[in-house]
Design goal:
- This protein has 290 residues and is of the alpha/beta class.
- The protein starts with a strand and ends in a 7-residue tail after the last helix.
- Helix 5 (174-184) packs parallel to helix 6 and helix 6 runs antiparallel to helix 7 (230-244).
- It has helices spanning 14-25, 60-70, 96-106, 156-162, 174-184, 210-225, 230-244, 249-264, 275-283, and strands spanning 3-9, 34-39, 51-55, 81-86, 110-118, 142-144, 151-155, 188-198.
- Strands 3-2-1-4-7-5-8-6 form an 8-stranded mixed sheet, sandwiched between helices.
Length: 290
């Protein structure tokens, strides 16, 4: 089981990036080749042997990661699976790569693994970092219906079959778009509490475009992937949840603007999942209406 790793950076965290690369280099078993993608930013000095790609403009998270995939050949074909790691993350354990290899080798239908994200100081895992509805126990591994973008492993075969991340999303919900397509193709996704990425705790709303893109991409996600009867249900539920969270007036305005944008702009190719996939998602504990 050959592994590669893709790291996306804006070039503004050189010390954290170097620490991450050192933690990848310390992994047990065969060395894990790494490509670092400078997403519209020059790269700092990196260890010898690390592949690099400097993009002239910021393509967003999914666009940048897709470039990293192709650096390992078409759809990442030079390796059997790819690790996607945030540049300010760190693999605290040296056996993570070996655990990934063993997990994929033991289950031929396992297509994606979502790691547990833990704060490096407190060890805490936030509920939003557990990709299931029943998130009170982050130490429990389980089958899930989506995964975390900066702490995961994906089989190259999944990417070859269903395509990469949706470039046009730029930021937010691109993982769920890929997850739904993978599940519809028959692959499974696991959340593994024993595969850990240390990452500082930050609120996602720190990004200036957060509220707009979360709303816009939520609409795009539904328009691209859901059977027609489920689209209004799914988006209606999320509208009610957003209002129930009582966001600030500027945040609500940005969210509603993104929601409108999601309906009035192209969402990309529409490939609605089969109803049996809807049933699979429901059996896994997260029907695609919430």
């Amino acid at each position: 089981m050959r592994l590669g790793a893709v790291v996306l950076t804006m070039g503004n965290r050189p010390e954290e990036l170097r620490a991450l690369l050192d933690s990848v280099a310390k992994q047990e078993g065969d060395p894990v080749p790494v490509v670092v993608v400078g997403n519209g930013a020059p790269l700092p000095e990196l260890p010898e042997g690390v592949r690099t790609v400097e993009l002239p403009e910021n393509l967003g998270i999914p666009g940048g990661r897709n470039v990293g995939i192709e650096a390992f050949g078409p759809s990442g074909s030079e390796v059997d699976a790819l690790l996607f790691l945030d540049d300010d993350g760190l693999l605290p354990n040296t056996d993570t790569a070996e655990l990934v290899r063993k997990a994929f080798e033991a289950d031929e239908k396992l297509g994606i693994i979502s790691f547990r994200i833990a704060d490096p100081d407190t060890g805490e895992t936030q509920r939003r970092h557990v990709p299931r509805l029943r998130a009170s126990d982050p130490m429990r591994s389980s089958r899930v219906t989506t995964f975390l973008g900066g702490a995961n492993a994906v089989r190259s075969q999944v990417i070859a079959e269903v395509g990469g991340l949706p470039d046009e999303f730029f930021y937010a919900h691109e993982e769920t778009d890929l997850a739904w397509r993978a599940l519809d193709a028959g692959w499974m996704i696991d959340y593994r509490a024993d595969m850990v990425l240390n990452h500082p705790t930050h609120p996602p709303s720190r990004h200036a475009v957060y509220h707009r893109m979360v709303a816009r991409n939520r609409v795009w996600l539904a328009r691209r992937n859901l059977p027609l009867p489920l689209i209004p249900v799914y988006l209606g539920v999320w509208l009610l949840l957003t209002l129930a969270r009582r966001p600030s007036l500027p945040a609500l305005r940005a969210w509603l603007g993104g929601f409108k944008e999601g309906w009035t702009t192209p969402a990309g190719p529409r490939r609605p999942m089969r109803w049996r996939t809807v049933w699979r998602l429901t059996r896994l504990g997260r029907p695609p209406v919430i």
